[in-house]
C-alpha cells in the first residue's frame, strides 16, 4: 500500500512563498522570530542588510547575528574569525557580527584606497619623468643651418662670421661670372693698354739729324764716361 504524501500546511506554503520572494521583503516587524529563522538564512548580504534597515522598531540580531558571523567567516576566513572571537573573550566584550563585518570591510576599503593612491602617484611620477626625458631630448637636437647663426649660446658669433664670409664669397663669385663684370674687365684692360703706349701730341721736328750732330754728342759724352770711371 503506497503512502500518501501529506498536503503542506498553509504556514509551510507561506514560508516557501516568502523564501521564493525574499528579494522583495522589507519590514518584518510583524513576523514571528521562528518564521524569520527559516526565511532569513536564504538572504544575501544585501538582502539581509535591507531587511534589517527597514525593520526600524525591532532588533533582529537574535536571528541575524549568526548569519552575519557566517558571512564574516566566508569573506575573511576561519582563522580571522577565530582571532576576533579570542580577542573579544580576552577583552570581555561582545560585538554584533554585522558591526564587525562592516568595520572589517571599511578597513579593507581604506587599504585599497591607499594602494590605489600609491599606484596613481607612482604612475604620475613615471609619466612626469618620461615627459621630462622627452623635453631634454628635444633640447639637445641641433638647430638647422639656417637658424644656427641666429641662436644664442657659445659659438654663435663664430657661426655668424662664417656665414657672413660664405655669403660674401658667393656674391663675389656671382659678380665675377656675370656679364657686367666681364665688360668692366675689358674696359680696365683697354685703359691699361692706352697708358702703356701714350700718343705724342707734338709733331716730330722736321730738322734732319746730321752726322755732325751725333758726333758732337758722342764727343761730349766721352768725358763724362771717364769721370765716372775715375
TrEMBL record:
Signal peptide: none annotated. GO terms for biological process: transcription elongation by RNA polymerase II. It holds the Pfam family Elongin_A. Residues 125-155, 191-230 are annotated as: Disordered. GO terms for cellular component: elongin complex. It comes from the Eukaryota. Residues 197-219 have a biased composition (Polar residues). This is Uncharacterized protein LOC105058328. The gene is LOC105058328.
Amino acid at each position: 500500500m503506497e503512502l500518501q504524501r501529506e498536503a503542506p500546511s498553509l504556514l509551510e506554503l507561506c514560508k516557501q512563498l516568502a523564501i521564493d520572494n525574499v528579494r522583495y521583503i522589507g519590514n518584518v516587524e510583524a513576523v514571528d522570530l521562528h518564521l524569520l529563522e527559516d526565511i532569513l538564512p536564504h538572504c544575501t548580504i544585501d538582502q539581509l542588510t535591507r531587511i534589517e534597515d527597514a525593520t526600524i522598531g525591532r532588533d533582529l540580531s537574535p536571528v541575524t547575528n549568526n548569519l552575519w558571523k557566517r558571512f564574516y567567516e566566508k569573506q575573511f576566513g576561519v582563522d580571522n574569525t577565530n582571532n576576533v572571537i579570542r580577542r573579544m573573550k580576552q577583552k570581555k566584550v561582545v560585538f554584533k557580527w554585522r558591526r564587525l563585518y562592516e568595520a572589517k570591510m571599511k578597513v579593507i576599503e581604506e587599504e585599497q584606497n591607499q594602494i590605489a593612491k600609491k599606484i596613481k602617484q607612482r604612475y604620475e611620477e613615471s609619466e612626469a619623468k618620461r615627459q621630462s626625458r622627452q623635453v631634454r631630448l628635444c633640447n639637445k637636437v641641433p638647430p638647422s643651418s639656417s637658424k644656427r647663426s641666429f641662436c644664442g649660446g657659445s659659438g654663435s658669433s663664430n657661426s655668424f662670421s662664417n656665414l657672413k664670409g660664405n655669403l660674401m664669397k658667393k656674391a663675389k663669385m656671382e659678380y665675377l661670372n656675370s656679364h657686367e663684370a666681364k665688360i668692366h674687365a675689358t674696359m680696365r684692360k683697354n685703359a691699361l693698354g692706352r697708358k702703356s703706349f701714350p700718343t705724342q701730341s707734338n709733331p716730330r721736328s722736321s730738322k734732319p739729324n746730321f752726322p755732325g750732330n751725333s758726333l758732337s754728342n758722342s764727343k761730349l759724352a766721352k768725358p763724362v764716361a771717364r769721370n765716372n770711371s775715375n
